[in-house]
């Protein structure tokens, strides 16, 4: 379980960092739309979205790895 959570955290953090860098530094070109981000600015807003993306991805990966481990263990016991 601990290994699955660690793997999920690494995958989630990596994905969030890549998406954040691409969006904030416009690595794929400039954003055509103009928006205003009143409180945090665009960097703060996308940092919060990156946190949500990292958390959700980590949870998804850890859950998937745990389910796969549980299925393998159940098949081995039968």
From TrEMBL:
One matching Pfam family: DUF7536
Instruction: Indicate the transmembrane segments per the record.
Output: 45-71
Alphabetic keyword roster = Membrane, Transmembrane, Transmembrane helix
Under the heading InterPro entries, the entry gives: DUF7536
Report the domain of life of the source organism.
Archaea
Name the UniProt record assigns to this protein: Uncharacterized protein
């Amino acid at each position: 379980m601990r290994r699955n959570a660690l793997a999920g955290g690494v995958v989630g953090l990596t994905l969030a960092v890549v998406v954040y860098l691409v969006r904030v530094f416009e690595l794929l070109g400039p954003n055509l739309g103009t928006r205003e981000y009143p409180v945090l600015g665009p960097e703060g807003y996308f940092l919060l979205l990156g946190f949500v993306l990292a958390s959700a991805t980590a949870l998804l990966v850890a859950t998937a790895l745990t389910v796969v481990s549980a299925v393998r263990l159940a098949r081995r016991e039968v």
